[in-house]
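Notes from the 1:1 (GR / supervisor)

We went over the backlog. Supervisor wanted to see one worked example end to end before approving the batch request, so GR pasted a single chain during the call. The sequence is below; no edits were made to it. Supervisor asked that the structure be written out right there so they could see what the output format looks like.
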Amino acid sequence: MTKTFWREYRRGAAGAVPMMLGFIPISLILGATGSQAGVSPLTMSLMTGINFAGGSEFAAVALWSAVPPFFVVMLTTWLINSRHIMLSAALTPYVMELPLRRALLVFFIMCDETWALAMQDISRRKAGGATDAEAFSYPFYLGVGISLWMTWVASAFTGAALGTGLGDLSDWGMAMAFPAIFIAILTSMWPGFHKCMPWIVSAAAAGISSLWLSSAWSVLIGSLAGLIFTWFTVSEDSRV
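Structure output shown during the call:
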C-alpha cells in the first residue's frame, strides 16, 4: 500500500477521534448491561463485531433476558437497523466502481457515524472540484470505520468483562453520549431547512408513532416517511 493510502487512512482515524471518545462510554454501558443479562464477554464481542449498530444491540440485550422467540430478536434488530437502507443508498453511487470485496467491507463497517464522516468528506472533496468518482476516499473511510469498529467492540468487551463492577453507569450521565453524538452529526451536516425536510418529516413520524408503538417500529415508520416524502418532493422538483 502506498504512502498516500496510509496518509488518507491516518486522516480518517484522526477525524474519528471525537466519535471514538463518545463510543467508549456508550459501549461500556452496553457491555455491562449485557453482562447483567447473562451475555458473556466473548458473545458480546461477536454481537458488536458482526452487527455494528448500537441501537439494535441495546434492544437485543434488553430482549436477551426476556427469552422471546428468536424471530422476535431478529425482527426487532432488522427494524431498528432499517435506517441503514437509506444510508447505504446514499453511499452506493460513490462505491460502485470499487471491487466487490472492498464494497462489502465499506458496508460492513458502516454505522451512522462512519457514514456521516464519509459524506462530509465527500462534500468537501466535491466542493474542491473532485468528480463523483474521485470524491470518495476509500482509505479515509477505512480509517474512520475500522477505528470506530475496534473502539466499539473493545469497549463492549471491557464492559461485559467488568460487569457489575462498573456499577450503574447511567448514574455517571454517560447515557447522554448517544444523543450528543447524533446532535453533533446533525449539526455538522445541516445543509439548510429546505434540504433537511426529509429529516424533519422522518423525525416527526418516528416521534409521533413512538407514543403508541415500540421504538423498533417507530424507527421503521420514520425511515419510510422520510423516503416517501423524498420520493414525492423529488418528483415534483423534476416536473418544474
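Supervisor's comment: Confidence is low (pLDDT under 50) at residues 235-240.
Batch request approved.
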